[in-house]
Specification:
Layout: H1 4-40, H2 47-66, H3 79-83, E1 88-94, H4 101-109, E2 118-125, H5 131-141, E3 145-150, H6 157-166, E4 173-177, H7 187-197, E5 202-209, H8 216-239, E6 249-252, H9 253-258, H10 269-279, E7 284-294, H11 300-327, H12 332-362, H13 369-388, H14 400-410, H15 413-426
Parallel strand pairs: 1-2, 1-4, 2-3, 5-7
Antiparallel strand pairs: 4-6, 5-6
Helix pairs in contact: 1-11, 1-12, 1-15, 2-8, 2-13, 8-13, 8-14, 10-11, 11-15, 12-13, 12-15, 13-14
């Protein structure tokens, strides 16, 4: 027989699922109608409106990207920081990470940070491979390594593991890493100094791919991360909007607790937390150098599994907090920025796909191509500038041929977003965290 608390949790999960399914359906139908309307319900396609929309997309996008030009690469004075070094807890949720966990621990214990100020916690989240045995041996070797164990059936995925660990930590700052993360020796000192000097509530390190040269997919993911970071920096200094990316995220513990910790009813804890931080007027800084390095997935099937989870989590947060965003005290430019990127990331792929299908089936001319072309142009520009910006860490691809092929790679989002939205609209959602396999 279920306990009352479990019964309430099940009801809460079902409520989340029903609400998201309805909102997904409304969003999907709305985008499809927008895609269909010019072809069948309008005597004259709204050409002027399309071009005006494209112009607005272009102008704001260029303004966002331009904010990167005069910014330095996180150079700051360490003197004040060295006089008041904060306490820091590193948290890593690890499930079946036997290929990379030893390398991560060896890296963490060798980081340049005062030992009395730093504690390392690895959460063994119900691993069924050799991860528990590896961690046991490492904990005997390193005194400041703390192992927290959970059952595989404890639930909550990565969010649940991190929430469980919060009861054991006492540091002023929490640094969240994935099991495949790699850092430079001085990363902690530099990012904490940046966080304190900038009075940030949270900081996201730029993510960089360690296996960029493995194949075409990993090369494209390396470019994509540079593009994302370039956009993030621009959004931060144009509208005050930026987001966490899961791996390499630094958060003040008191701010994290005040925001409700990690949401166990979402598949992307980082995106969900980002939106709650934004709503609470907490500032998220973007730290360009040094980056947090991680593995890119190496095959198309793993890529689509990963991107479906990202797309679903991205939509979930807007469906969950949409009302709060509309009624919030965010500035006009902040609301505009969130709306702008929501439309480009989630609405445009569905509208453009419907437009394309109609063109192919009924031999009609596409209508929304100017908006799609503008979005691709901005993405290409952010990718080129991001890869050519001075940086530390792995070499970023900047070959012209690779950059051109990368735009073809980006089109996978025009398949992933519609597919995920359709699935969210039809099927009741059972929260399942599909981890990315790290090969080491």
């Amino acid at each position: 027989m279920k306990s009352k608390s479990n019964f309430n949790k099940v009801n809460s999960d079902n409520s989340f699922s029903r609400s998201r399914r309805l909102k997904s359906f409304i969003f999907l139908v709305s985008c499809m109608l927008i895609g269909v309307y010019p072809h069948f319900f309008s005597k004259k396609p709204p050409v002027f409106a399309i071009y005006v929309t494209s112009f607005i997309v272009l102008i704001y996008g260029v303004w966002v990207l331009s904010k990167n030009i005069k910014l330095s690469n996180n150079v700051c004075d360490n003197n004040e920081f060295l006089n008041d070094i904060p306490t820091l807890d590193i948290l890593v949720a690890a499930r079946d990470e036997q290929n990379v966990i030893a390398r991560l621990v060896e890296r963490l214990v060798s980081l340049d940070y005062p030992s009395e100020k730093l504690k390392i916690y690895i959460i063994d989240d119900g691993s069924v491979d050799n991860t528990p045995n590896i961690l046991k041996k490492l904990s005997q070797k390193y005194e400041r390594l703390n192992i927290i164990s959970r059952s595989k059936n404890d639930g909550g995925g990565k969010s649940g593991a991190l929430n469980h660990a919060l009861q054991f930590i006492s540091g002023e700052w929490v640094f969240i890493l994935d099991a495949d993360a790699q850092l430079k020796n001085d990363t902690l000192q530099r990012v904490l100094s940046f966080a304190q000097n900038g009075s940030w509530s949270a900081v996201q390190l730029r993510k960089s791919v360690i296996n960029t040269s493995k194949n075409f997919l990993t090369t494209c993911q390396g470019i994509e991360m540079a593009m994302d970071a370039y956009f993030q920096v621009g959004r931060l200094y144009s509208a005050g909007i930026s987001e966490l990316r899961g791996n390499g995220q630094l958060v003040r513990k008191d701010i994290l607790l005040n925001c409700g910790s990690f949401n166990e009813n979402t598949v992307t804890d980082d995106l969900d937390l980002s939106l709650r931080l934004i709503l609470s007027q907490s500032k998220i800084g973007i730290f360009w150098d040094p980056p947090v390095m991680e593995e890119a997935v190496e095959d198309i099937f793993a890529l689509f599994r990963q991107r479906q989870r990202w797309a679903e989590g991205g939509l979930q947060r807007f469906f969950d907090y949409g009302r709060e965003l509309i009624l919030s005290k965010l500035t006009f430019i902040q609301k505009f920025d969130l709306t702008y990127f929501f439309i480009l990331q989630y609405a445009l792929p569905i509208i453009a796909l419907v437009d394309l299908i109609i063109c192919i089936v009924f031999y009609k001319s596409p209508v929304y191509w100017p908006v799609s072309l503008t979005a691709f142009t901005l993405s290409a520009s952010a990718s080129w500038f991001g890869c050519h910006k001075k940086h530390e860490g792995p070499v970023l691809p900047n070959n012209s041929i690779k950059m051109s092929l990368y735009l073809f790679y980006l089109s996978h989002w025009f398949i992933v977003i519609p597919l995920v939205t359709l699935k969210m609209s039809i099927f009741p959602k059972k929260i399942i965290w599909k981890k990315t396999t790290h090969l080491g």
